[in-house]
Amino acid sequence: xxxxxxxxxxxxxxxxxxxxxxxxxxxxxxxxxxxxxxxxxxxxxxxxxxxxxxxxxxxxxxxxxxxxxxxxxxxxxxxxxxxxxxxxxxxxxxxxxxxxxxxxxxxxxxxxxxxxxxxxxxxxxxxxxxxxxxxxxxxxxxxxxxxxxxxxxxxxxxxxxxxxxxxxxxxxxxxxxxxxxxxxxxxxxxxxxxxxxxxxxxxxxxxxxxxxxxxxxxxxxxxxxxxxxxxxxxxxxxxxxxxxxxxxxxxxxxxxxxxxxxxxxxxxxxxxxxxxxxxxxxxxxxxxxxxxxxxxxxxxxxxxxxxxxxxxxxxxxxx
Length: 319
Ligand code: ADP
Ligand code: MG
Fold this sequence. Notes:
This protein has about 325 residues and is α+β, with helices and mostly antiparallel strands. It has helices at about 5-10, 60-75, 95-110, 160-170, 175-190, 195-200, 215-225, 240-245, 250-255, 275-280, and strands at about 20-25, 30, 40-50, 80-90, 115-125, 125-135, 150-155, 205-210, 230, 265-270, 285-295, 300-305, 305. α2 runs parallel beside α3 (about 95-110).
């Protein structure tokens, strides 16, 4: 049994269904209707040492990333972040570590005007769980399920650099110091696409953040919207560092399956395609159009005119 099967089998069925829960399990955030024009969006993500970050990761990076991955899920719903709670399990008290860790957290919360409102502190193997909450106007929510047949699929920036950094850390690949620093920054200090999401939600029909790999998250969006796509892999945006250090095929495999990129996938109707492209160009956001959704409910990959196979969709716990 894998992560998503486990959630479906043991957690989705439950005794209570409340009227104020507009979205429960199954999207990037839950949505609560407290009255008024906005929903409260809520998401939780855990980082475990040695699983979500290499043990030698700097405490500032761990703090930054723990917040960033949660804000990324808020962005994926079109929500503006407001509050976080932090549950932290520490092996021991190390004041220097805590100083740096909280610096990493507060750099990001200050930028987004987010207040830390609570949490929990315990002793044990290093693990950080953050719950982030935000607000989204009821008519501006970006659900995974909102895409329509014929919509164009966009992705921000480039994909696969975090995977390249991890491959280098694991010793699978050798990078020059300069290249390593550049991709390690992306692995350690991901930028949640909050502002981009605020802009594209005026046009977009659906969105998801890329946390588990382009293919896995595109699959979640397609599945939720009951659509598919023929994905020409020549369209997948790869950084120069990635392309210059591994074969094109290896670069694509990293982009498709390695995860930790925290870019935004969103879909736009043919009518709004030019408008969203203009908005992103004006805001100097790098973006790529991956293609158009079709009713097949399948993701078919093509590379240089041939079908392309990957061993797994992306990162899954218990796989
Ligand atoms: P994301 O990658 O966007 O953070 P996940 O893949 O972690 O989302 O989770 C998918 C969905 O399952 C989300 O709606 C999440 O809230 C829900 N979920 C995950 N684990 C549990 C759990 N143990 N109990 C209830 N819901 C869960
Ligand atoms: Mg997500």
